[in-house]
């Protein structure tokens, strides 16, 4: 069943509307003892597309419940720390994200979009895999031929694009319109579920446009500097870049 891009089950997805939100008011809709807490409104990014879930707290009645992850299903379930009390259904709570973690994940995710945009533009290579943690990541590319100066050229080009202070915008389009955009999917395999009717588009203006469900900073200048820590060959023409941001 398709859903609006800013909802998941009973939860209104504040994280997709405004990535700058760090605290908000909500009401507990349900509690599942095995899966977690469902809110009517949440800015916790639940994880996906290589970006890990947010962490933070729920404050209620003078009590603090630490949130250590999420579980996706028919609803978004916030996973409480095993040692903390759980607010019952109907409780008014104040949600708050771990700001440093979220901000660093946003910088990292946007930086990886710059990286994939540069590698696709300059070398025509698609992404075959990736993973990120705050300020560190790996990205795999389908790249049979690697010039001797590939690593230096990529690092220089990525950091130049970051310095250009390009705007990063988020929009949604009907699936048919989104797929009319050339190269909107930058992975070698299209991972977008076939039942998604509205596609979220992240555009680094003048460089890169991709279908993407994660959170991002507002401009490339907010990413910082990227360093390629290591380049590895993974066989069959696949190349892995390990990067960090500062």
UniProtKB/TrEMBL annotation:
Keywords: Metal-binding, Zinc. Its main location: cytoplasm. SUPFAM superfamilies: ThrRS/AlaRS common domain, Translation proteins. It comes from the Bacteria. The keyword Flavoprotein does not apply. PROSITE patterns: AA_TRNA_LIGASE_II_ALA (PS50860). It is found in: Cytoplasm. Its cofactor is Zn(2+). This is Misacylated tRNA(Ala) deacylase. It comes from Kribbella orskensis.
